[in-house]
């Protein structure tokens, strides 16, 4: 599955940390691998523990002075919003993580990374592509594909609408700008996340 966590926020301001609610919601769904974007950088260990999963993460942008950002956002994520800091995370329940790799895609206007874990079936790649311009998003996606040409599963918040064509991979499912790609066929569904995030999660079954 893939889910953009909206920096741990709700579209309707909550006024307090939603870590426990996000963790319990994520843990309550059935999945083997979860690709997460816009994660508060101190959240991945807590999300993984709640879901009984292993995890790997990479910090992305707006993390200078992270201790102060954390102190503010832990009390109320709606004060700093996306300036609370960002990370991408991969959580894995049913496979051993054999390796973890990261690839910086761009430094401007915001730092963007692709990162991947190697599982027994192959590399699983997670990214959050640049916003504002389709050509920026497509550039990031293409660079990620170049960095991980043998991806078994590729997805995340690609910031591309529709069903963008990716060479060598089949579109497995998606919603708006969130997509999952791989090989063969799959069924997919958009999950109900209640009040959490401005992105619904997308889950595919291979």
Structure description:
The chain has 206 residues and is α+β, with helices and mostly antiparallel strands. The radius of gyration is 16 Å and the shape is globular. The strands form three sheets. Strands 5-6-7-8-10-9 form a six-stranded mixed sheet, covered by helices on one side. Strands 1-2-4-3 form a four-stranded mixed sheet, with helices on one face. Helix 1 packs parallel to helix 2. The chain has one domain: Endonuclease/exonuclease/phosphatase (Deoxyribonuclease I, Chain A, 4-Layer Sandwich). It has helices at residues 19-28, 44-51, 66-75, 77-80, 134-147, and strands at 2-4, 33-39, 54-59, 87-92, 99-106, 112-119, 122-128, 151-157, 170-175, 178-182, 187-190, 202-205. The model has no long low-confidence stretch (mean pLDDT 96).
Topology as a string of helices (H) and strands (E) = EHEHEHHEEEEHEEEEE
CATH superfamily: Endonuclease/exonuclease/phosphatase
Overall morphology = globular
CATH fold annotation: Deoxyribonuclease I, Chain A
Pfam family, one: Exo_endo_phos
Organism: Solirubrobacter ginsenosidimutans
Protein name: Endonuclease/exonuclease/phosphatase family protein
GO molecular function: endonuclease activity
Question: Layout of helices and strands, plus pairs?
Answer:
Blueprint: E1 2-4, H1 19-28, E2 33-39, H2 44-51, E3 54-59, H3 66-75, H4 77-80, E4 87-92, E5 99-106, E6 112-119, E7 122-128, H5 134-147, E8 151-157, E9 170-175, E10 178-182, E11 187-190, E12 202-205
Parallel strand pairs: 1-2, 7-8
Antiparallel strand pairs: 2-4, 3-4, 5-6, 6-7, 8-10, 9-10, 11-12
